[in-house]
Structure formats: structure tokens, C-alpha cells
Amino acid sequence: MKPRVLYVTHRVPFPPDRGDRIRTWNLLKFLAARADIDLACLADEPVTDTVRRQITCVTRRFAVVPHTGPRRYLSGMVSLLRGGSITEGMFRSRALTRILRTWNQDTLYDAALASSSGTAPFILPPNVSVQGQRWVDLIDVDSQKWMDYAAASRGPLSAVYRCEGRRLRTLETRLAERTDRLLVVTEAERSLFHSFCPQAPVQAVANGVDVEFFSPGCDRVQPRSCVFVGVMNYRPNVDAVCWFAEHVWPSVRQRWPDARFHIVGRSPAPDVSALNRRDGITVTGAVPDVRPWLHRAACVVVPLRIARGVQNKVLEAMACARPVVCSSAPLQGLAVEPGLHVLKADAPGDWQRAVGEIFEDENRAQELGLAASAWVQMHHRWDRCLEPVYELLEQPRAAVISETSS
After folding, report:
1. Strand partners for 202
2. Of 236, 251, 272, 374, which cross-links 268 as Cys (Cβ 3.0–4.6 Å)?
């Protein structure tokens, strides 16, 4: 009999159109091929019949709990005033708790997995009984992300971000004591967690990429074109493209008046939409498929100044054999060699030189793209990245074999 696994996610995992969904969807498929999965998820947007059909194909049963509106923000502020984190309050859901307790009445789970610290309480007692292990996929060390936000902000907002970072660090430390394993996406995140909680059972499970889907294309490359791909109301992405447009793009356009910068992704924030008015910049909004935009770009730019973990946008661009120019922050989670697999740039002058190197030398651009694609094929296929998750499924079987032998 297959193991029975409960998986609780903070967002519906399909479609895999943003970083956290890409990871949860591939984790779900990996688990579903080896276990019977009950999936419970919060939903911050409408769930279509197409999405429900896709999830039905890979689960034994699933429940979606709508989680939108101002009430969750109010709950977050109440949690903050009571000494907890905003995150804990925002993810509380009595409806989801009731569903899990009802499921647990007819199913004793062999294992349970939660995505993010916000949903971790749902798989802990008294909500769920588990005869095997409880794991939490933190993905990134969120407490550090909020501290990074604080460092990049000023005034009262900085104080709120710093407080949230401290409260989340307390939560993360508590989860290290109450769960069997915490997952993060890179060894750098693992080392960071151990810096404030040395005995924590933390393991790095890297993000992968669908190398069959994101593969080199045959589209004609548009000379002197850059592209950035991401969800465009996400603060680090907004900061990245606005910084690039302000500090790098004017010099690029001065040297190459026909250069184009495409900002591709759904839900552009007002500051991003305003970039449409600048010479050579196009903000597309949502597109049905990002691959043509990647394939046609002379280079992919990733000027993130706030970044944690592994950026899927970097892996996908590399898998498509596109030359990537990237800031230092996203590269901390990748064992790439700058200059061989990607070009690294931080200061505006470095960016101008790196983009120019690709614009002016087609052979160099092709060389970078091919090296990037080969590196992703070797190190970041999903099946290889998720191998450590086998242990979540094998633990219950090991316990049964032990009891039978005795």
C-alpha cells in the first residue's frame, strides 16, 4: 500500500506560473507518483475548473479554502499586536483547520508536509495526527527576507519589517523544535538558518527546472534586446526593473538607440507600468507563454537587489540557452561560474559593460547560452533535485518493517 501523505500549501500549486507554485507543483507531482496525497490549500485568487481538474489528477482528495480580502490583513495585525508575526495571523484559517481534523478522523497519515512557515501550524498537533514525519518546506529563510526589506526601507515601514523579521525568526526556531525536518532551497539558506539555530534539522533541497519545457528555441533573436521575466507586483521584482530602468538603461540606449527592454509578467505594479513611457521599454503584463520572450531576447537581465534562495527565472533562462546577466544576490544560491555560465554585474557600469559584451559579440552570447543550458541539465533537473524527499515517504515503511521484525 502506498504511503498516505498530507500536503498543505499556502497557495493553490497550479498553474506553476510563479516561484513558489513551481516548487509546490513539482513537489506535489513527485509525491503523487509515490504516495496517496491529500492536498489542502489556501487560495488567494479564484480557482478555475481547469485548475481543479489538474489537481484532481494527482491527488486522492483535495480542498481549496478561499483566503482573500481585508480580514486576513486584520488578522495579521492582531497577531502582531499580540506578540506574534503578521505572517502567522494572515495564514490562520478555521475553515482549513476543520477540514484537516475531519480528514484525520478517517485517515492516519504516514507523513505530512507544509509549504512555508505560515502553513506549518496546520500539520502540528492538535490539528493532525501523523505516525511518521512532519516536514516544513520553508523554501527560503523568510525572517531574513523581512530583515532585508527593513534594511532597504526607511521610517516606520522599516521598523515594521524589522519587527516581522524578528518575530518570524522566533517562529522558525520554534518549528525547528517541533518538526522532523525543515527544507530550504540552497546550502546558503541552510547555513544562514544554522547561524541562529545550530541544531535545527535543516536540509537543502534545490529548485529544479523542467528542461523539456524550457529548452533552447529556434526563434529568431532580436538584436540588442533585454528581457526580465517575473510576477511584477512582487517587491524585489519591482525594485529590480525600476533600478535597471533608472541606472542602467539610459546609458544602454545612448550607446544603442534601437535597444529594447521587455518587462514580462502579470500584475505590474504602478511603478512598473509607468516604465512603459520610457524610450525602448515595453511592459507586457501577463503573457500566455514566457518562452518566446526568452528565446527572442539577446540577453536576459536579472538585476535583483533583494533575493533569497534560487531564482526560477535564472534557471529557466539558462535552460533556454540564453545568455544571462545577473546581480550577485541571486547567484548566491547557484554554483555557477560567473564568466562561464552567466555574467555577473552589480554597479551600473558593470551592467553596461556586461550587456554590451553580449550585444556586440554574437559568438560570446552563444557560448554563454550553451554553457548555461548544459549546466542546468546537469545540476537542476527536478527528478535529481527532489531525491532527498524520498526519505519523507520511506520513514513510515521503515517503522512498519521494524515493528514486524520485533
Report:
1. 182
2. 272
